[in-house]
Amino acid sequence: MRFDMRFGAMALLVLAPCLARADIVASLDRHQAQLGDTLTLNLQATGSSQLTMPDLSMLQRDFAILGTSNSSSIQIVNGVRSASTTLGVALQPLHAGHLVIPALRIGGESTQPQTVDVSAAASPARTGTAAATGARGIMLEGSVNPVSVYVGQQAIYTLRLYFAVNIANGALDDPQVGGLDVHRIGSDTDYQTTRGGRRYNVVERRYAVTAEHAGTIRIPGLRFQGQVVDPDDPNAFFGALTPATAVAAPVDLQVSPIPGNWGSSTWLPSSQVKLSLSGLPASGGLTVGQPVTVSMRLEAQGVPASALPALSLPDLHGAQVYPDKASSQDQASSQGIRGVREQRFAIVPQQAGKLTLPETTVKWWNLRTHQAEFARIPAQTLDVQAAAGQPASAATASGPAAAASAVPAVAARAAGGQANPWRGLAYGLLALWLLTMLIGLGWWRRRGRKPSAQPRQEPTLSPSVDAAASVATRATRAARPGAQQQAFAQACQGTDLARQEQTLLAWARAERGTIRQLGDLQQALVEGVQSQVIAELQRARYGVGSVDGAALAAAFAGGFQWRPDHPDQEAASGLPPLYPFKLD
């Protein structure tokens, strides 16, 4: 048996390099090009230090293979070594169109297919190239795509600097146009192309531009200013430089107004919109009083996050909804800016049964079909279970309802007592006599202890009626949140931890005067969600971790869950005390 274990260990050591297969990823440096441009297909392998050359013969129908290059890197982070190898393949499109680089087989793995849109070579008159500077080996051209847009629709303005000389330094202007919102996309791209039989190096820069009003908006010609090394200057070797300038021709953008039949919804022109909801339990089951946090996410291609509509959940029958602070971001790619808005909600079920989340829709304008469409989250129905050990009726019963339900029980006891009325009468008289003696004794002791006579009190209701009224008053007060609870709920919508702590303690002191700090409140509550979020709030106040405002508000949505043995806690049953006063 010992031999088998040693053999297995040795086998694992030998096979470990084979089992650590490389993850191979294929990518293009850009997905749009013109005839004559060069592209770079990068094949990167991680987990292995070697990458074999794949079969590239299937690419020769659409591309000319200009050459290959290899590079490798090793990183050691926290003592963990990781290696990667990159194989670069220079490609030149042979014809225009939508070209596909198929999956390449490398070892035992395959890469993902890649696509590139290749257009015919643009002429200087159409693209806005400054032809006057082309003879000196430097050209600057600008183009916009598409040339006709709606108000609020994103277009891509591309600026290309062509140079066939050695540039020592230079600066390129960014477009600044009134009525046009301009955002630079990513970093510059370097490649090579052929124009008029001459080979050029190219620096490409892209901008996302969005029109703010209808009409014709002209993007003026931008300027490049720099210095080049003059090859005809005998002193060039010693650093003699010659000034160089290139100017692009202006480009016009035609902007159409918002369609008249759009309506009052937020204008959302896009080529793709996604609306999703996550966070609901896979089982579809919820529990009364236990919050669940869901996240609604809206994504729109070509629309910045600042232009996306706000996300919301409607009022739910049988549950409270607490929205958190929304988050948004802009994701830049070669296709432009993709806006993302995310809104989190804490849902607290209030009663057992069925809880329905209605359908949520976002209206948007499809730029491909030029029609209005709707992104949808379908309606969902969830099962809500009562909390363990707490019947649903007990959690929602009010004081008057409890008093009304007690009437049949009293009537039943009275009906049972009619079998022997004299015995019941005797017991009642005896109880009244004992009660009178106790009241008299208590009154005598209080009067003997206090020399100053207390003001005479008016006759009061019986203890049972007074207790029932107290229960009804407490239930009414609990059903109507006070100013302290509302202030706490408002504080949870922000990020001020100090205000959240202050408003929570103020609310707690309104019910329990002995509460002074979060530690006191945590000890006075039953162990559960409320004590957990208080611990998170304490850690966040000391700079350790963070607290979710929506979850904090949801935990106390139904009020405080005091411990039953708390000295100030009143009887949960609502029955009057055995003695209407305390014996000293």
UniProtKB/TrEMBL annotation:
InterPro entries, per the entry: BatD, DUF7939
Residue ranges annotated for the DUF7939 domain, each copy included: 484-556
Organism superkingdom: Bacteria
Signal peptide: 1-22
Transmembrane domains' residue ranges: 425-444
Keyword line: Membrane, Signal, Transmembrane, Transmembrane helix
Tagged with keyword Signal: yes
Pfam family, one: DUF7939
The name this protein goes by in its record: DUF7939 domain-containing protein
